[in-house]
From TrEMBL:
Organism this protein belongs to: Esox lucius
UniProt superkingdom: Eukaryota
Annotated NCBIfam families: ATPase-Plipid (TIGR01652), ATPase_P-type (TIGR01494)
Gene3D superfamilies membership: Calcium-transporting ATPase, cytoplasmic domain N (3.40.1110.10), Calcium-transporting ATPase, cytoplasmic transduction domain A (2.70.150.10), HAD superfamily/HAD-like (3.40.50.1000)
Enzyme class: translocase
Protein name: Phospholipid-transporting ATPase
Length: 1188
């Protein structure tokens, strides 16, 4: 879609009910429903100029300069030419407009194809496997049995597990018959467009029959079709009326807090300017009345001009002369600074992700300093904090823990990318992408340990995973949750390969032998049971129940003989949980044939009961799932992105509050909270808000343990202890109601960590808006999917992560990069530097221009309030453009109070930005007072030095031109010295700019005041010879030195006393020792275990075992399985060595190969040999236990 696409959509009355007919465009067009075209840009060809100018003139200074331009067109009051204002004003407006157009172009979503745009409501469209759903559709038919389709909703809720939708039988019978689909004329009546992703109500009328429609029949825009060859759907909502776009929010014009503060300050400056000009105009009237008549002999008044009218003209003349209090170059410089700091982000190699070849990108150039003031971060979970990859990390089998790499001294080695992984060559069906580092588990499998084999047999049987095998040996698992996929993949690699399934059987290849188990029952998972079981019959006819679930649930159902093993396994589970892993307990049970047949009959009766079916089934499940034998436990890592815990810890130390807003389940969100170190065992309490009505939510939010009795007077910093808050989407809907939103916000702000789970995209935006509205804090939202677009747009700063969920978040963001960890550098380094540089720039810019302007004010009392300028006109023109422009730009682009390492070492350096300490109304007022003092010194010291002064040859030096030259020279030296005091980081560029500007001043001055320029244009260059006549006098240079010292002396004294008496965090950081280059890895210690690792949806077990089978039969597998490298003899554990004939034999602890033998007659000599360095043929280091 083009940036300037026309949008002729007209507003219509609010829609109460949607009516449409399939394949009847004429009927559907009569309702003027939205097309499927989406406009993500802010402007089009007609609206760009007026909208952009409207936005730019919201800057009061721009409006002021427009008024000033109009005044300069009046000759009676203007002492300056009109082009001195119109040229910079047009330049500023043009540069800003070009930048805004560029930002708008890059924000366009380029994923839309032309076909999508042409889709209309009522059309029937075909989708194929792995395609995005183009609009909100009613599913009509599919290629799968029973008209099922499988969709991935990562763009909507962040979840990558597959979900199942099913078409009505009446429409599913049409299949892919184009004639039948074209003849279909069903009429749909449904709810109007809305943002509810989890609800849909409607009816389908076809052939005189009415059919109910619910959310299970609907495919939403943004979903992806998976494992389904094709499907047909009827378009219900298109374009901006789809539920996805209803949740995306509106693109708004973002402005920084500095911009908003500047508007207030400019208003104050205008008021002060008006007061100054009024005082000077009154002074002019008084002067004209008392002394003006004395000068009429050689300065006659124009006709009709009296003292009052002269005062009126003088008022506007001083408005023009004193306009430099807010020069137009201020805004030009601000745009240049922002552009430069944006380039730093783009060029930062430390924010470049080599694996995906993704650099950081500043997609806007107007918000850089806002990055240094962030107080609240709102983060998505899936794909943002996590990689959305589950990995089988560790396990405990029969009391032994596997997964760690242990050296010969019994010390655990840290696993990194260089650690040797297990060789899967013995298993031709292994997934080569699966990595595991503990070789002892492979050896245990090869030694045919019964407990180990039973453990992995359970993982290969007890699940609802689907296997797809398009070519023999190439297995693709489709799991309802990534947790289950990781467990089944682990079993596959360790020799227990789940190959295929039917509703009645499961086929597994066990250590090269294909075995088919009869699947007799699946005891399905739900949120109450927190476990699932399968009952299978082995090929030998043995009945067995396999169960996996939350350890607390499994432990309650174990046989009493497992108590000792349970204690050991509990220690392992605590260790796994301490590392942030998600744990499951595994157990099994042999069943009696006679008992099972009787139980199966009762199960059939219960499963067909019309009343209390679930309760009856639960009782039967409880009955059979007891006296289980514990096998062990698994530990799965919901793999965080690199550096996430460290980044969150650093940002927390910078007093930035991080809220997680995710569409995932509560348990999943909590687990990630613990993994990221946001939730900790040391917290006083973690409160769960999960009520489903207004009163209960209000009651849970009013817990006295958190708020006390007087909630209104408790502030964030007064909370005694640390608390966490977890709230689900249903409760959040009530909490965000107008009557309860303040209560929710108070409770949330009292908690150190807030996690909102099962939230819709719109709720994410509502939470962000709530904090923006009542906390008056700068917010940042970060996400990677289309479900995060709404909060990215709502926050002051939106950050998109180019991850696995598409580019929608990136295209709507202000900044983008590939990994969450880069947020630390974006804020603590680039954001802080940008804010600090902008504040220094504004303070210095106002100082130098106020000082420049106030000298005119003092001079007015000595020139009869005649609006005569104290400086040469060329100096006025070049002061901001040449003499002082580059030094302040150099400071604003290159200055660093501390380097990036110090910024990471001292996160508290970020806090002053949150508190607006570097530039605020108070700082501005101090800057104004400093300018008043400097202007007094700059005017009266040269005035006193020049008064009644003569040259060394006796000639008079006290003329207006010499005084003007002396004053402006003192001014240039003073502002350059002040810049040097403000600058913390001197570079070659800064040196060049400062000394170059001083050189340029003298070069231009001598050139302008030369005889040649005067002869060329006498009226334009009247200061002939002033420079060479004045600057060769020692007393002039002494005056310059004295004036400069007096101007900066109070600043030096004040800063010295401030450092001694009230040092800031910057002063303390600079006094600290040099920080280390490497930060310690954060390791969480916890006794909490994950509730359960697999995030199923209830009912999947019924789907697997019913005739609604999920997949077609797999290719008949061959029985060939080559077991390479299997140990045939007794296995000797690595790390054991023995003395034989004074020979030391070592086995490599890493690769189990290449034993090393060393002849020695004493342990001391062996120690010397070992310290000299030993390695096997693969260069693995040895670390034997010398005490053995």
């Amino acid at each position: 879609m083009s940036l300037f696409q026309l949008d002729f959509a007209k507003k219509k009355e609010r829609e109460l009910e949607r009516k449409l007919k399939a394949n009847d465009r004429e009927y559907n067009l009569s309702f003027k429903y939205a097309t499927n075209a989406i406009k993500t840009s802010k402007y089009n060809v007609f609206t760009f100029l007026p909208l952009n100018l409207f936005e730019q003139f919201q800057r009061i200074a721009n409006a002021y300069f427009l008024i000033l331009l109009l005044l300069q067109l009046i000759p009676a009051i203007s002492s300056l030419s009109w082009f001195t204002t119109v040229v910079p004003l047009v330049l500023v407006l043009s540069v800003t407009a070009a930048k805004d157009a560029t930002d708008d172009i890059v924000s366009i979503n380029m994923l839309q194809s032309e076909r999508w745009m042409n889709v209309q409501v009522g059309d029937i469209i075909k989708l194929e496997n792995n395609q995005f759903v183009t609009a909100d559709l009613l599913l009509l038919s599919s290629s799968e049995p029973l008209n099922l389709v499988y969709i991935e909703t990562a763009e909507l809720d962040g979840e990558t597990n597959l979900k199942v939708k099913q078409a009505l039988t009446v429409t599913g019978d049409m299949g892919d018959n184009i004639q039948k689909l074209a003849a279909f004329n069903g009429e749909v009546r449904c709810e109007p467009p809305n943002n509810r992703l989890d609800r849909f109500t409607g009816t389908l009328n076809n052939a005189g029959q009415k059919y109910s429609l619910d959310n299970n029949r609907i495919l939403l825009r943004g979903c992806t079709l998976r494992n389904t060859d094709w499907c047909f759907g009827l378009v219900l909502f298109g374009g901006p009326e789809t539920k996805l776009m209803k949740n995306c929010g509106k693109t708004t014009f973002k402005r920084t807090s500095v911009d908003r503060l500047m508007n207030v300050l400019v208003l104050c400056i205008f008021g002060f300017l008006a007061v100054m000009c009024t005082i000077l105009a009154i002074g002019n009237r008084i002067w004209e009345q008392r002394w003006g008549s004395d000068f009429t002999a050689f300065l006659p008044r124009e006709d009709g001009v009296n003292a009052s009218f002269s005062a009126f003209l003088t008022f506007w003349s001083y408005i023009i002369i004193l306009n430099t209090v807010v020069p137009i170059s201020l805004y030009v410089s601000m745009e240049v600074i922002r552009l430069g700091n944006s380039f730093y982000i783009d060029w930062d190699r430390n924010m470049y992700h080599a694996h995906s070849d993704t650099p950081a990108e500043a997609r806007t150039t107007t918000l850089n300093e806002e990055l240094g003031q962030i107080k609240y971060i709102f983060s998505d979970k899936t794909g943002t904090l996590t990689q959305n990859i589950m990995t089988f990390n560790k396990c405990s089998i029969n009391g032994k823990s596997y997964g760690d790499v242990i050296d010969y001294n019994g010390q655990r080695l840290e696993i990194n990318e260089n650690t040797e992984t297990v060789d899967w060559s013995f298993n031709p069906l292994a997934d080569q992408r699966f990595s595991f580092h503990d070789h002892s588990l492979v050896e245990a499998v090869k030694l045919e340990s019964p407990e180990v084999h039973t453990f992995f047999r359970l993982l290969s049987l007890c699940h609802t995973v689907m296997a797809e095998e398009k070519r023999e040996g190439e297995l693709l698992y489709q799991a309802q949750s990534p947790d289950e996929g990781a467990l089944v993949t682990a079993a596959r690699n360790f020799g227990f390969v789940f190959r295929s399934r039917t509703p009645e059987s499961v086929t597994v290849v066990e250590m090269g032998k294909q075995r088919c188990y009869d699947l007799l029952a699946i005891l399905d998972f739900n949120n109450v049971r927190k476990r699932m079981s399968v009952i299978v019959r082995s090929p030998e006819g043995k009945l067995c129940l396999y169960c996996k679930g939350a350890d607390t649930i499994i432990y309650e159902r174990l046989h009493q003989s497992c108590s000792k093993l349970m204690d050991i396994t509990t220690e392992h589970l605590n260790e796994y949980a301490g590392e942030g892993l998600r744990t499951l307990a595994l157990a099994c049970k042999d069943l009696d044939e006679k008992y099972f047949k009787e139980w199966q009959q009762r199960h059939h009766v219960a499963s067909t009961a019309l009343e209390d079916r679930e309760q009856k089934l639960d009782l039967l499940y409880e009955e059979i799932e007891k006296d289980l034998m514990l096998l062990g436990a698994t530990a799965i890592e919901d793999k965080l992105q690199d550096g996430v815990p460290q980044t969150i810890e650093q940002l927390s130390q910078a007093d930035i509050k991080i809220w997680v807003l995710t569409g995932d389940k509560q348990e999943t969100a909590e687990n990630i909270g613990y993994s990221c170190n946001m939730l900790r065992e040391e917290m006083n309490d973690i409160f769960i808000v999960s009520a489903n009505n207004t009163d209960d939510v209000r009651q849970e939010l009013r817990s006295d343990d958190v708020l006390g009795s007087k909630v209104k007077v408790i502030k964030d910093e007064e909370v005694d202890g640390e608390f966490g808050l977890v709230i689900n989407g249903h409760s959040l809907a009530y909490a965000l109601d107008g009557s309860m939103e303040l209560l929710f916000l108070r409770v949330a702000c009292l908690c150190k960590t807030v996690i909102c789970c099962r939230v819709t995209p719109l709720q994410k935006a509502q939470v962000v808006e709530l904090v923006k509205k009542y906390k008056q804090a700068v917010t940042l939202a970060i996400g990677d999917g289309a479900n995060d677009v709404s909060m990215i747009k709502a926050a002051h700063i939106g950050v998109g992560i180019s991850g696995q969920e598409g580019m929608q978040a990136v295209l709507s963001s202000d900044y983008s990069f590939a990994q969450f960890r880069y947020l630390e550098r974006l804020l603590l380094v680039h954001g802080r530097w940008s804010y600090l540089r902008m504040c220094k720039f504004l303070s210095y810019f106002f100082y130098k221009n106020f000082t420049f302007t106030f000298v005119h004010l003092w001079y007015a009392f000595f020139c009869g309030f005649s609006a005569q300028t104290v400086y040469d006109e060329w100096f006025i023109t070049l002061y901001n453009l040449v003499y002082t422009a580059l030094p302040v730009l150099g400071m604003s682009l290159f200055d660093q109070d501390v380097n990036d390492m110090w910024s990471f070492q001292h996160p508290k350096l970020y806090v002053p930005g949150q508190l607006n300490q570097y530039f605020s109304k108070t700082a501005f007022f101090k800057c104004a007072l400093h300018s008043v003092y400097s202007s007094v010194v700059l005017f009266f010291i040269p005035y006193a030095a020049m008064y009644d002064t003569v040259r060394s040859d006796g000639k008079d030096i006290a003329d207006y031109q010499s005084f003007a030259l002396l004053t402006q020279t003192c001014l240039v030296f003073t502002v350059c010295i002040q810049l040097g005091l403000d600058m913390s980081y001197w570079t070659a560029v800064n040196q060049l700019f400062v000394w170059g500007s001083l050189t340029m001043y003298f070069a231009v001055t001598f050139a302008m005041y030369s005889n040649g320029m005067y002869l060329a244009a006498p009226a334009s260059f009247p200061f002939i010879g002033t420079a060479r006549n004045s600057l060769n006098q020692p007393n002039v240079w002494l005056t310059i030195l004295l004036t400069s010292i007096l101007c900066v002396l109070p600043v030096v004294a004040y800063r010295f006393l401030l450092i001694q008496l009230r040092p800031t965090i910057n002063n303390k950081a600079k006094a600290a020792p040099l920080p280390p280059k490497r930060r310690a890895k954060i390791r969480r210690s916890s006794t909490r275990r994950s509730g359960y690792a697999f995030s199923h949806a209830q009912g999947y077990g019924d789907l697997v075992t019913s005739t609604r089978f999920l997949r077609r039969p797999a290719i008949v597998p061959s029985s060939g399985f080559t077991l390479l490298g299997r140990t045939t003899g007794p296995f000797v554990p690595s790390g054991v060595f023995s003395w034989k004939h004074r020979t030391l034999q070592l086995n490599c602890a890493t690769c189990y190969t290449s034993p090393v033998c060393i002849e020695t007659d004493s342990l001391e000599r062996f120690s010397l040999a070992f310290n000299g360095g030993l390695s096997c043929c693969r260069r693995h280091d040895f670390a034997p236990n010398l005490t053995q």
